């Protein structure tokens, strides 16, 4: 059987589907850096090298989980059989305008001031 190459949109992440239906993920250092950028993390070259095999391991585990037949499993919000212990919603007084604006880096008398987003 010939392996089938599956590429992401930018061609960076590759998966090879084998006869046993196993998929091996190959991440690049660029993928790790892109992920760090999305997470707003600054990481060193050493951290990229350390994270690369860890992320590949995580992706392998997720792929293994995707092979499970979950058609007979009821959706759930937790793996534990517990009751919701949250408090009852009650109306309580909110912050005053002055309290809300007290720690804002920039504000006028009524609103938060933020830099323009669209130019």
Structure commentary:
- By secondary structure, the chain is α+β, with helices and mostly antiparallel strands.
- The protein has 3 helices and 3 strands, in the order E-E-E-H-H-H.
- Mean pLDDT is 80; it is low at 1-23.
Relative strand content? 5-15%
Q: What pattern of helices and strands is seen along the backbone?
A: EEEHHH
Order of strands across the main sheet:
1-2-3
- Overall SS class: alpha+beta
> Total number of helical segments?
3
Binned, the helix content reads 25-40%
| Biggest sheet record | 3 strands, antiparallel
Q: Characterize the overall form.
A: flat
Which quaternary structure do these chains form? Answer: single chain
List the helices and strands and how they pair.
Elements: E1 4-7, E2 14-17, E3 23-26, H1 29-38, H2 45-66, H3 97-101
Antiparallel strand pairs: 1-2, 2-3
Short overview:
By secondary structure, the chain is an alpha+beta fold. Helix content is 31%, strand content 10%.
Give the key terms.
alpha+beta; 3-stranded antiparallel β-sheet; disordered N terminus; 119 residues; flat; 3 strands
